């Protein structure tokens, strides 16, 4: 049956191409020779120029319009082809097909954009607009740290991976047979993380460090089968990590306690896990060996948030005894980008592999017995486990994980260690110089890249630094930290000395005092174990070698450079080059997420513009750009609905109705929000069974919180009763959460707000123009 369907599809495609050719090709002329080659069989004939100059005829206004319009270059179906396709479906026009497909009850009036976006931009105008926004950003040299660092993106990786559509257009590699190149690169990523953390298993990969820490917290709960509900977080963790864990804990009914690690109290017998930062957010490197032993003695699992570059120098978490290590690979050649996206990681032991979030790449064999790669574990398991899934992760930042992996491949173990030693040396030189100045007090604890300083007026020092286009981190009125990275120079250190001397000249230089500096890391914390020992990390250290390796891998993949990707869960398209170009503009790429807001004016104007446009498109009143994946959007939207009910005093509303046809992440997200899932079935055609839904809503009306619904459905159908479905939920006290995975099929025709939904997430990589 499946083969018959494929053959029928191919036959239809041949008829479309033939009909299209006859509808658009000019009749051949006799007696006329030409040097132009004949079009390849099956190729689209080129239409005649829209505006040909005829002597003596006035030039039309339309002939004077710009030629670099988006539809002209990116909407490949010509009007004639659209007419042929509509005809094959039994309609005279595309509009007639739409009128017959989209229910009349939910057809919205045309969208009205206001201001400069009303007519849209040409490609050149778009580049000018983005250049204007970039000019509004002030990318001062960042010494803020907190898990985000400037980095040098090797040019060979920038051009041949990050800016290469043969790498950035593929979907998450669910289909191993057409993703062997990316799978090998992701296996390199896993190997890199496992080696550096000293733990045997790593995923590939997660969304950001804070989310990875929250996933580790959920793992600790799962390990003890929810019998212990307290999770302890060290106060030296990054503040954003603490915030995310506290928010995530509410859905799991976990009691989060934040305190200094030395004050952790296990006496309640209710602690499932602890989280510590290594190195700490203010730079300190603590010896956790005895701490880990004590936690394990009380039956408590240890999560360690860490830094991959530091682990080339520091004893790794696995050797210390940590059960789980999490962190970000951002400083391995991925720009800060005002906070992301970045690839994170989670590494653990074999014992807990079935509780790991995300996906794991494994080595297998193909049907002929040759080595092959596949997803040994993947998030598609969510579609089976649903509300019992360990995670709702749906996107792994595979492109950025590949960048980080190639960064490690390019530099190798010796290269990474050299970068780490240089960063540590610059931090040590700075600390030594401050001691010579004598104007402030330098923390005496060991550090890797971040120096903590006690001073009389931290804000005054930070202001002086900003005058010199440098950003420092103000912890409190008397505490400041300065974090160093791969891009820091000796000249930068000299500028910092001048800042800390109140703008007065200093009688020494960083270069002159560097020979006096020694490492601050004690021998007990110095790493002596090897890492990145696989040959792949020693083979490609020159540009031409890595270039060939990158092209070798991309030749094993199917990307949008080759064809459409036949994966129904995502609508893929080749992103316009002008949409991608700003991503690597230094004014956007090199902005630290905690830089003063007045330095990011271009970013914030862009956020406001995008939000206004999204409000118009969706029919909603407000927006958030914070979720960084579809499942994150589900979680955020459901948490908003949860907060809405609580604000009205309806704390008891916790039932979420979900059709059995929903995305697998839907029930997983609802479970993470502490909701009770009630499934409703579908009818013979795969549509939501409205009567069954009505009965479920009425039966749970006292506790109904939300409905999760995808529109059009996961079967690709505009269900007729969607407006009635929304009314049923509202009449029974619930809110409607719409999964926007198929939003591209709504834009310009209807909208979630017009249909009656209350909250919706948008997969920007599906409907709009970002890579995944």
TrEMBL record:
Residues 73-500, 518-760 form the Glycine cleavage system P-protein N-terminal domain. GO terms for cellular component: apoplast; chloroplast envelope; glycine cleavage complex; mitochondrion. It holds the Pfam family GDC-P. The modification N6-(pyridoxal phosphate)lysine is found at residue 766. The keyword 4Fe-4S does not apply. Its cofactor is pyridoxal 5'-phosphate. CDD domains: GDC-P. Residues 19-44 have a biased composition (Low complexity). Its EC number is 1.4.4.2. The keyword Mitochondrion applies. Keywords: Mitochondrion, Oxidoreductase, Pyridoxal phosphate, Signal, Transit peptide. It catalyses: N(6)-[(R)-lipoyl]-L-lysyl-[glycine-cleavage complex H protein] + glycine + H(+) = N(6)-[(R)-S(8)-aminomethyldihydrolipoyl]-L-lysyl-[glycine-cleavage complex H protein] + CO2. Residues 19-79 are annotated as: Disordered. Residues 1-23 form the signal peptide. It is found in: Mitochondrion. Homodimer. The glycine cleavage system is composed of four proteins: P, T, L and H. The glycine cleavage system catalyzes the degradation of glycine. Belongs to the GcvP family. This is Glycine cleavage system P protein. The lineage of its organism: Eukaryota, Viridiplantae, Streptophyta, Embryophyta, Tracheophyta.
């Amino acid at each position: 049956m499946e083969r018959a369907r494929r053959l029928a599809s191919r036959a239809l495609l041949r008829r479309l191409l033939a009909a299209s050719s006859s509808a658009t090709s000019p009749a051949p002329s006799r007696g006329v020779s030409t040097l132009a080659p004949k079009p390849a069989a099956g190729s689209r004939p080129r239409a005649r120029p829209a505006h040909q100059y005829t002597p003596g005829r006035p030039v039309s206004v339309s002939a004077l319009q710009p030629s670099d319009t988006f539809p002209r270059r990116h909407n490949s179906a010509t009007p004639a082809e659209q007419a042929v396709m509509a005809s094959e479906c039994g309609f005279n026009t595309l509009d007639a097909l739409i009128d017959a497909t989209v229910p009349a009850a939910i057809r919205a009036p045309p969208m009205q954009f206001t201001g400069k976006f009303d007519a849209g931009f040409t490609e050149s105008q778009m580049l000018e607009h983005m250049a204007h926004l970039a000019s509004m950003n002030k990318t001062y040299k960042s010494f803020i740290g907190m898990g985000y660092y400037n980095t040098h993106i090797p040019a060979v990786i920038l051009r041949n991976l990050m800016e290469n559509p043969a790498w950035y257009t593929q979907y998450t590699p669910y289909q191993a047979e057409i993703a062997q190149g990316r799978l090998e690169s992701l296996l390199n990523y896993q190997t890199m993380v496992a080696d550096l953390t000293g733990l045997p298993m790593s995923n590939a990969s997660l969304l950001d460090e804070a989310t990875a820490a929250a996933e580790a917290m959920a793992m600790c709960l799962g390990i003890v089968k929810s019998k212990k509900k307290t999770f302890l977080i060290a106060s030296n963790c990054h503040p954003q990590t603490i915030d995310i864990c506290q928010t995530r804990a509410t859905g799991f009914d976990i009691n989060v306690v934040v305190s200094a690690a030395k004050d952790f109290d296990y006496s309640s017998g209710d602690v499932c896990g602890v989280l510590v930062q290594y190195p700490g957010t203010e730079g300190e490197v603590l010896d956790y060996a005895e701490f880990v032993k004590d936690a394990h003695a009380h039956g408590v699992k240890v999560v360690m948030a860490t830094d991959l570059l530091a682990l080339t120098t520091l004893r790794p978490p696995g050797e210390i005894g940590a059960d789980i290590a999490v962190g970000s690979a951002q400083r391995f050649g991925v720009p800060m980008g005002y906070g992301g996206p970045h690839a994170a990681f989670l590494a653990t032991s074999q014992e807990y592999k079935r509780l790991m979030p995300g996906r794991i790449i494994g080595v297998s064999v193909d049907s002929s017995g040759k080595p092959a790669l596949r997803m040994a574990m993947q998030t598609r398991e969510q579609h089976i486990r649903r509300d019992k899934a360990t995670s709702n992760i749906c996107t792994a930042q595979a492109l950025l994980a590949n960048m980080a992996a190639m960064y490690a491949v390019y530099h190798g173990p010796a290269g990474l260690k050299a970068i780490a030693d240089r960063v540590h040396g610059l931090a040590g030189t700075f600390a030594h110089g401050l001691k010579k100045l004598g104007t402030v007090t330098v923390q005496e604890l060991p550090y890797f890249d971040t120096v903590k300083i006690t001073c009389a007026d931290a804000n005054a020092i930070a202001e002086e630094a900003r005058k010199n286009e440098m950003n420092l981190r103000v912890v409190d009125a008397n505490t400041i930290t300065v974090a160093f990275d791969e891009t820091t120079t000796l000249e930068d250190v000299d500028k910092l000395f001048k800042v800390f001397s109140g703008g007065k000249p200093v009688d020494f230089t960083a270069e002159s005092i560097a020979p006096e500096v020694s490492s601050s890391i004690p021998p007990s914390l110095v790493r002596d174990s090897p890492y990145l020992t696989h040959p792949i990390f020693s083979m490609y250290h020159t540009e031409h070698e890595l270039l060939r390796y990158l092209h070798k891998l991309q030749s094993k993949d199917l990307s949008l450079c080759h064809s459409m990707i036949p994966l129904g869960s995502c609508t893929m398209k080749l992103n316009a080059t002008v949409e991608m170009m700003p991503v690597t503009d230094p004014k956007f790429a090199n902005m630290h997420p905690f830089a003063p807001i007045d330095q990011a004016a271009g970013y914030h104007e862009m956020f406001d513009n995008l939000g206004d446009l999204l409000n118009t498109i969706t029919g909603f009143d407000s927006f958030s750009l914070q979720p960084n994946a579809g499942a994150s959007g589900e979680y955020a939207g459901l948490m908003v609905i949860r907060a809405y009910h609580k604000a009205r005093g309806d704390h008891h509303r916790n039932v979420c109705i979900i059709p059995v046809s929903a995305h697998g992440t839907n029930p997983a997200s609802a479970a993470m929000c502490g909701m009770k899932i009630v499934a409703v079935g579908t009818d013979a055609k795969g549509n939501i069974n409205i009567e069954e839904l009505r009965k479920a809503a009425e039966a749970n009306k006292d506790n109904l919180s939300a409905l999760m619904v995808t529109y059009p459905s996961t079967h690709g159908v505009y269900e007729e009763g969607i407006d009635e479905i929304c009314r049923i939920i509202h009449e029974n006290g619930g809110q409607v959460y719409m999964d926007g995975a198929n939003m591209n099929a709504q834009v310009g025709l209807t909208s979630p707000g017009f249909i009656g939904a209350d909250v919706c997430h948008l997969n920007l990589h599906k409907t709009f123009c970002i890579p995944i």
